[in-house]
Structures are given as C-alpha cells and as structure tokens.
Amino acid sequence: MAGQFGSRSNTEKRYRLGEDALGLVTSKGVLLFLLLAACACPSPSAFADTITPGDEIDKLYTVKETLDPLGANPVGEQVDLESGQLSIRQVDVAIPGNSDLPVEFARTFTPDGHYFIGVDEADARKDRNQVGELHDWRIDVPKIYAVLARDVGWPDNRCTGFGPPPSADGWKSGADYWAYEPSSYWHGYYAHIPGKGTHQLLDSDNSTLTPGDSNQFPIVTNNYWAVECWTIGGVDANGEAVDTPGEGFTLHTPDGRTYYFDHLTKEAQPGLMKDPGNGLLRLRYVMLASRVEDAFGNWVEYHYNSSGGLTSVQASDGRIIRVSYSGGKVASVTANSQTWTYSYAVDSNGHLHLDKVLLPDGRSWNFDVAGLADYQLSIRDPMLCDGPGSPLSPLKASGTITGPFGTTVEFVLEPTKRPRGGVSHSNCKPVGDKSITTTPKEYYTFALAKKTIGGPNMESLIWRYDYTSPRGWYSDAPGSSYKSTEVIEPDGDRAVYLFDMRADWRRSAARRPAS
Q1: What letter does residue 376 receive in the DSSP assignment?
Q2: Contact of 359 with 340, CB cutoff 8 Å
Q3: Which residues contact 251 (CB under 8 A, 6 or more apart)?
Q4: 417 near 87, Cβ under 8 Å?
C-alpha cells in the first residue's frame, strides 16, 4: 500500500509493554511514505435522531484499508494514516489445525464518529442497546455489505445486476416525496475478510484485474479478489436451509481460497435528513459468509441463528468454536472445554457497552470506550463550497482498554479536517444565502490524535498524530497534490506519510459503479 522514499536504517527500537507484548516501531530517522491508488410514509418521529448527508461525507473519501500502526499494538489497534480512523481487532479464541484456514472468534471496534439511533424495517427506533451481538463491538467474520435506502433494498439480482442503487424517495412533510440520489445515501459495496482487510467492490468491465472472462467475474477489487454469482435457492453453501432470496456471491482470492456469501442480514442505520421534515430511512445490508475453502479441499463453516448471530465455526479437521447468547447478546464462547464469558455495562448516557471479557484462566480484558463509541461527529455547514464550518461536537473524546496483565492503552480522537483536490466546481449550487456542493473540497474525520501505553512497572509511552495538510482545491484552481500525516514517536522521532489528495486518486483499471 505504501511506497518508501529513502532507506530504513539497521537500528530498530523496541518498547517493552509490561507482560502483554513486545512491539517494534520504525527505525531511527524520518521516513516518507507515499500512498498511491489509485411506500408507506414513516412518522416524523422516526427522524428524531438523524444526520445530514454532509455528516457522512468522510465515508465517501476515506480509504477502507489500514496500515500497520507505528509502534506496539498490544490491544490489536490499527490506524488508517490517511484519514486517522482507528480500528481495533482482538482475537479471543483461535484454534490451530491441519490447514491455515482460521478457526477463531474475533471482535472489532471502529469508533468512526457515527454513533446512531437508527430505524429498523418496522420504523421502530433502535440504538446499540438493541442491535449487535456485542453492542459497540462486532463479531469479525467474512462479509459483503452496503448501506442502502430501506424502501429500495438490495435487489435479488444483487450480483448479476451489480451497480449503483437507484434514486430513493425520501419522506417529506405533507406526504410529498423528495428524491435522494445514490451519492447522498450510499457509499459503495465492500467485501471484508478477517486478516485480509476490507476492499471496495468494483465493476470488472473487462478490467485487467479480472482472472478470466468478465461475464464470469463481473465484480473485482483492486487487490485481485474476483467475484462470481450464484442463485442461493433456499440452501446455503453448507447445504443448510437459508431464507436469503435471490443471488449470493462467491469470492476468490489469489491465494486459492473461495468464500461463499449467502446469509443476508439487516442492521439499523441512521436516517438522513436534508432539511426539517425531509428524511430517508436506511438499512445496512450484510451478506455473511457460510463457508470458505482452500485449494486443497480444506474448509471452514460458519453457522448463524435466525437473527444473523454467529453460533459456531467448524473446520474439516474437527476444530470447532461454539457461541452462546442471552437476550440477543453474546454471553459465552466455548472451545476445547474452555469458556470465555462476556459482560456488559450501561454508561452515563444509558447506552450499553461491552465491559469485560473474562478468560478461562480468570484474567480479563476490560473496556472503557463509551466516550469513543457514543461520539457523534457533527459539523456546522459541512458541504459549503468554501469549506466546512467548525465542529459542533466536542473537540475530543477518549477511551481506554486494559489487557489481562494490566497494560492499559488510552486513545484520544479528535475531529480533523482533511482536503481533496481537483473536484468539480460546477457542483456548487446556491441554496439561500449559501453556496452548497455534493463534492466538497474539504471534510472532517474522527481521527486518532494520541495513543498512550502504560501499566505496571513501565514508563508511559506516547504517540502523537499530526494531520498537516494544505487547503482543498477545485479543478479550475489547482493546488497541492499531496497531504500528509506526521507521527511523533515516544522518543521524539518522526515519521511523515504523504498521500495523493487528488479526487481521482482511487481510479484504477477497474471502475467503481458510476452513480
């Protein structure tokens, strides 16, 4: 993902983190990196907790990929240094076997500044107390997903008919409808495979990324994943009954693995509101994998309950993990006669959060991340042509995770402005006394600003992240081609990363579905 300017010295720095981990960071000196890439009307109360399209503008321009963090990552943290987005992945259970196909129970936490109270298919208001098997964490399994308008949905020909969704009719006061273009409510389709990352699905369109005929592989990614289509027909890839209508996805990776996606679930999402009394209901559609096979015939099966909750992971060599639920939430995970127990707590806002994972040996992971999970990034006039206004939300939020041996990691995140260059000025339109655009030259992300690692018998280590960048610019007034992120390490060394900020930088031989 990154090309290196200059050379790495032979000197390595090591930071000892109590008993939890031994981490490595970059060598002495300054390194420069360049990232290249390329209807029934709902009631007004359904929109009591909504966001504007501008509040999600970062999702249009944030790369859904991660770089390994600079420094030790004792709690499984990673940071996308272009946007500053933090993600944490922890594996509670992993069973080695006769193949390298993983049999594991893992969790992910991604504080993106978009805590929501969403709306389900019955217009019932739901927050994270009611959706998600781990509340603010997610079970990490292979999946393909997209956020779509509730009244449009994900059609049965979702694979052979791959493309942008249609415009959606939003509800407006007086029983009128207001059209929402795809670019205002949809941010693309994504495939996620644990350990291999998340990549946007692209229309193959005779691309050189396709391993064969583009009619056979109508969908690809920029890292050479290729997708075939198949009709589910009431039975998943394991031969078990499933009520997913229409088509599933078969995804092939260059290492010879094949993933079958055929369990469709839906999750509540925040509604959109362009102006008072004008809203659109959305859902997050997730196609979960039921099976993965390698080139040698080994396989791993994923089994789910009727709500889409993972109930077991089982491999051809006999490895198995079982997941138990209480009140719709993960209560315990069992493997090899050992049990991991999950407990939850209510924060000062009345929101439930994963509080503790008790390990079989009596030690535990402890979480105090409510401030990050509850954070809602809100910007004054986010879609102004001259640039967004200032944040309306708090200027920072923090959370801590404590490991089984007492090592504690604190994360501090802040609203951070990031620029784009070369966007069309013609999209600027007068709205009242303001000039508004659907493709702003600057936008905000909820970015990691500081990480502190501490614990028994160790000196605290601090990493700081500085997202220095020029102003964004329109195509009729060119400016700088690059923005940067500087990471200041515990001993004062600095690493600087450069990123191409031009609006077309993600284009490749394959194209995203045009909207």
Answers
A1: B
A2: yes
A3: 144, 191, 193, 225, 226, 227, 258, 259, 261
A4: no
Closest listed residue to residue 123, CA positions, set 39, 42, 40, 41: 42
pLDDT in tens, 436-474: 887 788 888 999 999 999 998 889 999 999 998 789 998
Closest C-alpha to 221, from 179, 264, 162: 162
Distance of CA 480 to the CA centre of its chain: 28
Cα–Cα distance measured from residue 402 to residue 75, given in angstroms and rounded to the nearest whole number:
8
Indicate the burial class of 317 (C-beta count within 10 angstroms; 0-12, 13-18, 19 or more).
Answer: middle
In percent, the amount of the chain with pLDDT more than 70 equals: 76
**Which pLDDT does position 25 carry in this prediction?**
29
Cβ neighbours for 473, distance < 8 A, ≥ 6 positions apart = 419, 421, 422, 441, 479, 480
Residue 251: how many CB atoms within 10 A of its CB? 24
Residue type, 204: S
pLDDT band at 181 (very low <50, low <70, confident <90, very high): confident
Distance between alpha carbon 327 and the CA centroid of its chain, in Å?
A: 26
Q: pLDDT tens, 234-257?
A: 999 999 999 999 999 999 999 999
Please report the pLDDT score of residue 470 as a whole number: 84
Strands 473-474 and 421-423: parallel
Contact 150, 121 (CB under 8 A): yes
Give the span between the Cα atoms of 399 and 379, in whole angstroms.
22
Cβ neighbours, 10 Å, residue 346: 12
Backbone phi, psi, residue 426, to 5°: -70, -15
pLDDT higher than threshold 50 for residue 480: yes
On the question of pLDDT at 506 being above 90, the answer is no
Are β-strands 494-500 and 32-35 bridged in parallel, bridged antiparallel, or unpaired?
Answer: parallel
d(CA 241, CA 232): 10
